[in-house]
Design brief:
Length: 106
């Protein structure tokens, strides 16, 4: 993990990274407990997974894939994160992790 990412997304000692994906101009970090995004050097979202209402992976022919993250509250804007082809497997596994965390809430 680069110093810039560690600075943008400080991790607790016990925090386990599920996915760290370099996107077009930013990063997507998913740990066992939270999800964070950045654009450039700016953190655009950093929330516990339990604060997320919906995630969606959209893969279309001839277009970049997108990972959409929709928080519960209106105080946090949804994020649309471009996902490079090389990271499809990682983002799919991370999506499954997020789904399991949200399913355990009910």
């Amino acid at each position: 993990m680069t110093d810039a990412i560690v600075t943008a997304f400080p991790l607790d000692a016990a925090e386990r990274v599920v996915a760290l994906i370099e996107t077009d101009g930013g990063h997507l970090l998913i740990t066992h407990d939270r999800i964070a995004t950045s654009s450039g050097n700016h953190v655009t979202m950093d929330l516990p997974i339990v604060a997320i209402r919906r995630v969606q992976l959209d893969i279309e022919r001839h277009r970049p894939a997108t990972f959409v993250i929709v928080p519960h509250g209106p105080e946090n804007e949804p994020q649309v994160v471009p996902i490079p082809v090389a990271h499809y497997e990682v983002v799919c596994a991370a999506s499954a992790h997020i789904g399991r965390v949200l399913a355990e809430l009910d």
